[in-house]
Amino acid sequence: MAFRWGRGLAKVYPMFFVWLKRYMPRGIYGRAALILLLPVVILQLVMTVIFAQRNYEGVTNQMTDTVLREVELVMQVVDDAPSAAAVPATVQDRLAALDMGVTPVSASEVPTRNRMSWYDYSGRVMVARFDEYLPSFLSLDLTRPTGVHLYVQSRFGPLDLQFERRRISAQNPHQLFVYTFSFGFVMTLISFVYLRNQLRPIKRLARAAEAFGRGRHVPYTPTGAVEVRAAGAAFVDMRARIERQIEQRTLMLSGVSHDLRTPLTRMRLGLSMIDEDDAEPLLQDVDDMQGMLDAFLDFAKGTAEGEAEPLDPHVLMQTAVEDAQRAGRNVTLLPPEGDGTGTVRLRRMAILRAVDNLISNGVRYGARAEVSVLLTDKTLRIRVEDDGPGIPEDRRIEAVRPFSRLDPARNQNSGSGGVGLGLAIATDIARAHGGVLRLGSSDTLGGLRADIVIAR
């Protein structure tokens, strides 16, 4: 039985943490505030409960016991009074030092229930004490401005005993609570300001890393605690190495492409001097090599062209489609989707190159292509669909790798097939904008669906 109970408890714990995780703050400020405030709040609640039970309640019980003895003495004097009318005078003559008024009342004047404020904790303690140790207790009224009105039963009928509230409960009991919460709030505020200053360098590092992931270089200097400075310095070194690597790759491929253009130009010039029928296949080979070099150069440039600027994606895609149509490609721009408006920070030439590569692939392996733009408050999606054979799902990861050619999956008879850099360039450009290139199957045309998704 214990083993089964242990297994059940082991299953409940993960479910509890999964449920709790849904309500946890997502940001570092919220989690830090929770870590800071939760112990303070719990400590204050524990101290309040302990004070209320051990001190405040205990003091109230002691003062109530004193009043109980005085009430018993008053009741003895009342029993000695000759009549109900003589009760006030008798009590005043014999117990004037108690400073307690006694008034005979009718049964209809006695409250049917105890009267007190909802926050009157000591009043509840008094009611419980009187009800337990005073047999003649009827009810208690703590709402009168004249003081406490205690209703008891005597041999002459109900009596109303009046005395000051300070005789039965501590004065200003709320002061400790006010002091506790006030100082707790002040200390929490001071701690939060200090914590904010400690978290600010982490936020700056996160913004610099996010900007670098989107292809932007944001000035950043490591600051803050030793550990944050170490992480910041490591990020600066990593960013510098990546930038040097990208620069070296660009220079290398650009240099290779430039050096190969000269012999290709000489070959083209030499082939132009021989018979046209014999030279046509060789000229086609030269054109193919020229196209490969252009693709290599585009891949080398990557996302280095220009800085990101606010652009209207609908106008930008209109330009991309018009350029493709002038180049003789069968492509159509569909009506805008989504309810988003405004601009998105994009690299104009890089996005145009990525979309042009996707359109080129679509019309190369199919008959036509369609371009659509979905803009929302949080996302930009540029979709290019074609009516070709598409790419199998198990080969889509391979398709976006540089120099990857999936001719068996695509239609080899519709073009030369390229050099395998079109999707790779589009992927790099999408990543440089903090987005992603997603490949799927077109529901409308039946071919490949390529989505460039970028967060706004």
What class, by secondary structure content? Answer: alpha+beta
The CATH topology name of the largest domain reads Heat Shock Protein 90
In spatial order, strands of the major sheet run 6-8-9-11-10
- Write the element-wise H/E pattern from the N-terminal end onward: HHHEHEEEHHHEHEEHEEHHEE
Can you give the helix content as a percent range? 55-70%
CATH class of the largest domain: Alpha Beta
What integer value in Å does the Rg equal? 43 Å
Percent strand equals 5-15%
Count structural domains: 3
Compute the separation of the termini in Å: 56 Å
Please give a quick description of this structure.
The chain is α+β, with helices and mostly antiparallel strands. The chain is 56% helix and 13% strand.
